[in-house]
Fold these 3 entries.
Entry 1:
Amino acid sequence: MIRRTLAITRKEIIHIIRDPRSLAMMFMIPVIYLVLFGYTATTDIEHLPTAVLDQDRTSQSRELVDAYRASNYFDILFYVRSEEEIGKLIDQGQAKAGMIIPASYGKNLTTENQASIAFVIDGSMPTVAMTALSAAHTVAQAQSTALIERVYGLNIEDQPGVDVRPRVWYNPDMKSANFMIPGVMAMILQIQATIFTALSIAREKEEGTIEQLIATPLRSMELIVGKVTPYVVISLFNLIEVLLIGVFWFGVPVNGSVLLLLTLGVLALLVSLGIGLFNSTIANTQQEAILLTFFLMLPFIFLSGFFFPLEALPHVLQIISYLIPLRYLLVITRGIILKGVGLDILWDQALALALFAIVILTLAASRFRKRL
């Protein structure tokens, strides 16, 4: 049995080596995904292009503009003369925010000890708008505090009130890369292993070599194990590759056990291989296998919590998400890498993956027959 399985594994390795473009894709796709998501899938908004309409032109208004510039959230790139110019800049996409300082700003600060400004934000991208809105309020509050301390000679910290001192655990700097990169690792394990496993069987059908395998004394399980073994090794290598790049290039800290991560990664691989094998029993060509895999993977990604928090989904979709294996894998990778938790916390996620692996591999094996 072992000799026959190793023979199929050797045959599959030869297939992979003889197709250098596919081999290069297997190793380059994870790196490309990681770089793209690491740099582009971020909600860390800084240096937002901002236009300023300063109708006051006093030292107080200039001090306010300087406070916004110093925050690093806003880059003051445009000084305009009318609100219409702000609207035009935002419509053209050259500015994402606009600050309007009325002519009475400095006078109101002096006589009434308070003044108002208008802050226009481009809401076409809600994530950017929410961050900009929060930053605008933060800078305004800091400037108000500074004015109170200067005008009244008071130290705000000595005044009665509630002092909130928040602490952010696991990701103190709230870097998006620390959240996205563990997710990319899970996605690569899920998608890549599924695609290449489905292609390996579909290729045999498409090229007509499946008949030659049928004529051999191979059992179905020996054929399955022999075909998928190279992709298990490649997927584990890619997981380590992505983990190293995430740590040394993007500075993502690994707070938990790497050994536990790899062990549960193998469990997740069994799920992916089962899905790939199941798809290969349906598809007759490699093109059909790719289309079917992407048809399944897109809902997997959007219903797993990879991009959007599950709590934000409608209740019906939250229930459906429990049928998505990637959901549990994301909890595992982010839990181990960011939180440093162990199997005592993640046992239920690991159990869910184990159940998925058993069910999906059983279905795939039952459909896979050593016949045309």
Entry 2:
Amino acid sequence: MFHGAGAGGNERPADPPTLWDIKASMTHPSVSHQPVLREECVHLLCPRPGYYYIDCTLGLGSHTRAILEAAPGTTLVAFDRDADSIALATAALSDLAPRLATRCADFKEWRRFDMPSMPFGGCLIDLGLSSYQLEGSGRGFSFLRDEPLDMRMDARTGPTAAELLNEEPREELERIFRDLGEVRFWRRLARAIVDRRRARTFRTTADLVDAVRSVAGRGRTHHPATLPFMALRIAVNGELEGLGVFLREAASELAPGGRIVVISYHSLEDRIVKQTFREMARVTVDYQILTKKPVVAGEDERRRNPRSRSAKLRALARTAEGEGREEEGAR
């Protein structure tokens, strides 16, 4: 049986904390958070009354609000691994509570949860971090703040970023920085981390930034810690694991005309999404790629929200009964 917001057994934390005073600049989630490609997401998802949708990464709830407001009569199930984000977004979306259910879990575990007894209209996956996680969580997601090196989206479980840096062998650190971050100086950085931790353990983001600076060199267009931080965050949270499997599972459950919309922020994520969509569209006429090339933010949005500069949006639809496999954009 499907339960609405606030229900669902032990997947929701009991008595979530009040977080409105975390940062002076974050007195209300909607004030500081700028959702990436919001209008484009809603247009491609095309929510319809009488269907349910999944927001796989609730964050501060801006995309969720846009979807629900675009189509009265829809129901939405929102997933997020971050219990604090769930608490903030639930409060911000209280006016939409009758049509919204939240689940404090990884969206890739969706099949263990009850869903509404309605046709599945589609899902949105925004694979980026929320403003709260970067600016207010205090978990070390950003190298611009000196915070504890945690980086866990779900603070209840799993090793922290500091524990990985202090305990993993050099070979595993090399793999993380090379394969998950495509860091050019991956070998030197892994060696520097191992050398440093012999004298003192890694505790804060400043410790990792210092290690990066010691080996990064000059002449870069972005901060040298950008990719190492991203790689470590992906490793801590297993962000790429099972993404392709989820896309296939979700697509198989779509009602005719249903859609999957994904926003990725780096080449590894985008590659998984692109290849999975192409494989599904190639092997069966049931699926249609809606984006010949990834949709990117326009100049105005990139100026307002620098985080949108690396965003790439791709969309896939399940064809309506009787339709052919005409694509809006051939591959």
Entry 3:
Amino acid sequence: MNMIRLALSVIVTLLLMVQMGFSQSLPSLKVMTFNIRYDNPGDAEHAWEHRKERVASILYFYNVDVFGLQEALHHQLIYLEEQFPNYERIGVGRDDGKEKGEYSPIFFNPSILESIDQGTLWLSKTPDKPSKDWDAALPRIATWILLRHISTKDTLLVCNTHFDHRGETARLESAKFLKEKLPQMAKNYPVILMGDFNSSPESEPYQTLVNGDTFLDAKKASEIPSIGPERTFSGFKVTPELTSDRIDHIFITSGLDVLRHATISEEQNGSYPSDHFPVFAELSW
């Protein structure tokens, strides 16, 4: 009888060790969304030339596997590609589908992830070509990529976007469109949707995305309580947090867990590297 108990104990211990080893080997993915502010000479001391190294340093420091940028002009992308030669980049200019206008690019680490498919959607009634609709002030895009983890073969769809800053209807219709379109494209794979949504948690576009069982806000889903300021739109100068403009978000679908989340607000000499804070999350799937 004692031998049976001993054998059962050994089996249970081995099973627990296998289970623990399996859980520790599950892949995690560090992602970031960052509105880097377009290169506007009118920004004077906050113009791109004076802060581009700080933008790159944040991405370096957090060692992200996938990051999505907003407001990036072509020459800003060229600079960042030079700083991150081991990453691959996808995305096109929103004005012509080539190099004109702002990009919403996605960078990813090809040593752990491989691209299966990729593309660009215009947030309009004609999403397959450069266009704008509703009350949008400018053409707006969503860049997407289907990524597969090289070692585990787990697959997910990542989308990076930037909603219109003026058109209330355009923001709402963009949210409806992506909420329906992205799960269809991903089929049974999880989805990460990130970007500058110009929409606070109280807004209708945000509520459209999180209502139901499609998307969760990674900040609220984080296993460790999120750190950093509540706002994500900051301006360049360090000031007290008088308002709560949380408009940059990372959303996830089922099949993903949020291990940690942060809104990054490092400053230097009284200023931030962009007028938006980057938002970071580490996910597992």
